[in-house]
Amino acid sequence: MNDNTDLPVVESAGRSWRLILVFVLLILVAGGIVTKLVSLYTLDQDFLQRQGDARSLRTTLVPSHRGIITDRNGEPLAVSAPVATIWADPSKADTHHQGLKRLAFLLDVKRSDLVTKLEKNSSRQFIYLKRQVAPELAEQIDTLKVPGVHVDVDYKRYYPAGEVSTHLVGFTGIEGNGQEGMELAYDEWLSGDPGRKLVMQDRLGRTIKHIKSIEQAKPGQDIQLSIDLRLQYMAYRELKAAVQAHKADSASAVVLDAKTGEVLAMVNQPSYNPNDRSSIDVKGLRNRAVTDLFEPGSTMKPLTIAAALMSGKYTTKSVVDTTPGYMKIRSSTIRDHRNYGKLSLTSIITKSSNVGATKLALSLHEDAIRNLFHNVGLGQSSGTGFPGERNGSLPYYPAKRVVERATMSYGYGLSVTPLQLAQAYLPLANEGVALPASLIKLDEAPKGSRIMPTTIANSVLRMMETVTQRGGTGRRAAVHGYRVAGKTGTSHKASRGGYSDDKYIAVFSGVVPVSDPRIVVVVMVNNPKGQEYYGGEVAAPVFSRVSSNALRLLNVAPDQWPDKPVQTMVMK
Questions:
Q1: At what angle do helices 301-311 and 454-465 cross, to 10 degrees?
Q2: Sign (positive or negative) of CA dihedral 446, 452, 454, 458
Q3: pLDDT band at residue 56, thresholds of 50, 70 and 90?
Q4: Entry pTM
Q5: Which of 5, 407, 72 is nearest to 225 (CA)?
Q6: According to the model, what pLDDT value does residue 217 have?
Q7: Cβ contact 306:360 at 8 Å
Q8: Bridge partners (DSSP) listed for residue 490
């Protein structure tokens, strides 16, 4: 009996112990929760706040505005227009979203292709969907609220003058960096520094609030080029018409300010539209005026005459006997178009006598002509800083290389760019003072270097004036109302193993007006096809039209009035 009466007491004690244990555990759990809450709201509050912000606040870049490129009168040549970039975070993209079909339509892609692209890159957090989108289209995409798809502000480069100035201005790539021309040469100057801002994003990565600006974007600096867009349009039109008329392979024209060396116009053919590069031919990308080399031919003869006068062995009244119209130098024969007999130095330029230039060259010290060619800028950089600019070739020939010395006197055996040839004529237009060429507008004329006496420069300039008068080779370069000094050049194109018999370079280089030189113009036409291929037939007419329009636009007064007064009819 006693054993049975003790059993309920033991069971009651066991239950009490378990209840106490459960109660203690509950107290410990509650204490732990309270302790953690206290810790979260006191000791760990700053840490948790930072971690929460890190998952919702982001620092994003603010694109900077690229500097504007203008002509010398402030006309825009390259500007940055606002566009948008559409990108996606594939890891957060919803490929079943109802707005995806509309998104694909706005992006001009198939919905299936868009879905495939997102799924294929599902492990990535950033891919471009489309760049340089019009702001209106970007706004429609943004209203779709497709998860993982974002719209950012960006800039696209636009070129108002299109193909007319593209070889000089160049263009930028899709990232906004300069790729060609002045865009590349001055990329660091034009590029700005992007800013930074703090934004709040939702769990899908969409920006829902702009918190604050951390660093303001710094726009790029503007550049004012030396060209006059009016002259650029005019020169481009004339050059393009000449290339089409003569079915030439290419052509270039350069207009320099005779007082400052600034490039007032620089055009090339073929060209391209930088605003639409979908069908660009790589042949049209080069700025041929500074990259393409050619042998200048007889346009070097005025400088040869200048070297002869500077030697002291000749004067403006000297006479050279070119009879019988050719001369043999070792195994080579140098010829004129016909036997001109005795020629003055002026007539050597007027008739473009190879024999006369050769006899002068061989009578001088072997360095005389080359030194003058070098001093006017041939065989070296013009210093414009243009990407890809060529130095040309001006070899040194010792005394025994008589054939090479002879041919150099009339423009063979050396190579130049159209810009170099124009720069070489600056001393003749500027009383013997050489000037550096500039593609940037100058605040004041640079200090040049004298390379020949004023009297000799002026004398040669007057000799060159006969080229555009009766009996000269460049009569079609004449400009009504103005005195024009210039020189034609026609050279055979170099080919493998020698010179081509039926491919030519037609050139005219000149200065106008002679009384007070204002511009130097060079026109080079590469491989004109047809019956006309001489510089006086192909390049001279382009020179005339370009110079005439340029003088009118620059408001230069005529210096050669007609002999007879203009008759006016009086109405009675």
A1: 140
A2: negative
A3: low
A4: 0.81
A5: 72
A6: 67
A7: no
A8: 506
Each residue's pLDDT tens digit, 90-137:
888 888 888 888 888 988 889 888 888 888 888 887 888 888 888 888
Q: Cβ distance 520 to 508 under 8 Å?
A: no
How far is residue 561's CA from residue 551's CA, in Å, rounded to a whole number?
Answer: 15
Average pLDDT taken over every residue of the chain: 88
Active-site residue among 226, 298, 409, 548? Answer: 298
Q: Based on C-alpha coordinates, what's the Rg of the chain?
A: 38
For residues 555 and 542, the answer to whether their CB atoms sit within 8 Å is no
Q: What is the mean pLDDT of residues 537-542?
A: 97
What lies within 8 Å, CB to CB, of 479 at 6+ separation is 512, 544, 547, 548, 551
Distance CA 396, CA 356 (A): 22
Task: Mention every residue, 6+ apart, whose C-beta is less than 8 A from residue 536.
Answer: 473, 474, 475, 476, 477, 488, 490, 508
CA 42 vs. chain centroid, Å, equals 63
Rounded Cα gap, residues 343 and 356, in angstroms: 8
CB atoms inside a 10 Å sphere around CB 426: 26
Determine the 3-state secondary structure of 144 from DSSP: helix
- Which is nearest to 486 in space by CA: 540, 529, 546, 534? 540
Summarize pLDDT for 190-249 with one digit per residue, the tens. Answer: 987 776 766 666 555 556 556 556 767 688 899 999 999 999 999 999 999 999 999 999
Question: What is the per-residue pLDDT for 572?
Answer: 33
Q: What are 391-433's pLDDT values in tens digits?
A: 999 999 998 999 999 999 999 999 999 999 999 999 999 999 9
Q: How far apart are CA 358 and CA 34, in angstroms?
A: 108
The tokens 């481009």 sit on which residue?
236
Backbone torsions φ then ψ of 266, nearest 5 degrees: -150, 110
Tell me phi and psi for residue 530, to 5 degrees: 125, -165
Closest CA to 248 of 7, 53, 533: 533
Exposed/middle/buried for 3, CB within 10 Å: 0-12, 13-18, 19+? exposed
- Closest by CA to 249, choosing from 500, 528, 536, 541, is 528
pLDDT tier at 566, thresholds 50, 70, 90: very low
What is the three-state SS of 312-371? CCCCCCCEEECCCCEEEECCEEEECCCCCCEEEHHHHHHHCCHHHHHHHHHHCCCCHHHH
3 state SS of 223: strand
- How far is 299 from 474, CA to CA, in rounded Å? 11
Are the C-beta atoms of 546 and 484 separated by less than 8 Å? no
Q: Is 352 a catalytic residue?
A: no
Token duo for residue 114: 């868009």
pLDDT category of residue 88 using cuts at 50, 70 and 90: confident
Per-position b or e across 487-513, b if 16+ CB within 10 A of its CB:
bbbbbbbbeeeeeeeebbbbbbbbbbb
Report CA torsion sign: 300, 542, 262, 520. positive
pLDDT of residue 6: 56
Range scoring the smallest mean pLDDT among 251-255, 384-388, 454-458:
384-388
The tokens 């509050």 sit on which residue? Answer: 45
Report which of 161, 140, 165, 159 is spatially closest to residue 151, judged by C-alpha positions.
140
